[in-house]
Design goal:
This protein has 8 helices and 14 strands. By secondary structure, the chain is α/β, with parallel strands linked by helices. The radius of gyration is 21 Å and the shape is globular.
């Protein structure tokens, strides 16, 4: 073909056309595998989702060694152009809702009027080491609001990659193990929403009056789509100040938590997330303080969220 476009991870890129274009969300850590750079160099141009991904691909370099002798015979580094193609969000679907009469998302089982929402896949990794950092987020939530008479809820729209009863039970077991580490008989409630939702149902979830804010202690995002989706509904966001989502979330209008780069833990490392790489670990005391203040002074955060929604929708 005259033009060949391929959307996948870079190590799978194949230059089949006369002009070859790659599309990839990119990388969530500070280092990619050498095969990814070799794949990028096969294409005439590659489009990524964020400045973070572009910067990682442009900054890494590896020694190329002879497979038989082990001697260094060259360097693997980016030689072809990489550009950012912003993913965006469908503002015909993701937007504030005023009418809930036909809402198919029923959160009647949640007795609290204030729920923090988290959306993401609970992937491999010890507590505090999985990419979305869901385990530590739960731990901090429990520690922050334990023993209090007035408590918010934590609503998890979480899976282990697929929606199934076995996956649901595995997640519930993980939650119970974390709760057992918190010394309290009065813990805030955690709810699990399991199963696939349409885009329209996700927007209804974001808009539900009981859902007051989104929280994510993600260690790294190639883009961070749920954060952009949620930002359009004029509700506060609490997340980390590193990687793809900082392209569209503004520090003045969202709660971006500081922290530091730490090594990818062996329990989370795989063929894409290398143990030699680093990603972001939030300053956990900051997280608890922001959660508590957001719960106590919600109107302040809500007003800031409206400014972020205007930026997300218009820009």
């Amino acid at each position: 073909p005259d033009i060949w476009a391929q959307c996948t991870i870079p190590s799978e890129f194949q230059p089949i056309g006369k002009y070859n274009i790659g599309f990839t969300a990119g990388i969530e850590s500070t280092v990619c595998a050498p095969g990814w750079i070799e794949g990028l160099n096969k294409m005439d141009v590659t489009f990524v989702s964020s400045e973070h991904s572009k910067n990682v691909f442009e900054s890494v370099a590896f020694e190329k060694k002879d497979e038989k002798t082990g001697q260094v015979v060259g360097k693997i580094e980016l030689k072809k152009p990489v550009e950012v193609l912003f993913e965006g969000v469908n503002i015909d679907t993701y937007k504030p809702l005023k009418d809930f009469s036909s809402n198919s998302i029923n959160l009647g089982d949640i007795k609290e009027s204030f729920a923090f929402l988290h959306c993401g896949m609970w992937l491999n990794g010890d507590i505090g080491e999985d990419r979305k950092n869901i385990g530590m987020m739960i731990k901090i939530f429990l520690e922050t609001f334990k023993n209090k008479m007035n408590q918010p809820a934590l609503l998890l729209k979480v899976s282990q990659g697929t929606s199934s009863y076995m996956g649901r039970d595995a997640i519930l077991n993980k939650i119970e193990k974390i709760k057992a580490t918190v010394n309290s008989k009065l813990l805030p409630n955690i709810y699990l929403l399991n199963g696939d939702l349409t885009d329209e149902e996700m927007n209804e979830l974001y808009n539900n009056p009981k859902v007051k804010a989104m929280v994510s202690l993600t260690k790294g995002e190639g883009f961070g789509r749920p954060l952009l989706e949620f930002s359009t509904v004029e509700k506060p966001i609490l997340t980390t100040n590193w990687s793809g989502h900082t392209d569209f979330l503004h520090e003045e209008f969202t709660s971006l938590i500081g922290g530091k780069l730490t090594p990818v833990h062996p329990s989370a490392a795989n063929q894409w997330l290398l143990k030699e790489a680093q990603w972001f670990t939030a300053d956990y005391p900051q997280v608890g303080g922001h959660m508590r203040d957001m719960f106590d002074n919600y109107k302040v955060y809500k007003n800031r969220a409206k400014r972020q929604a205007a930026i997300s929708t218009k820009e």
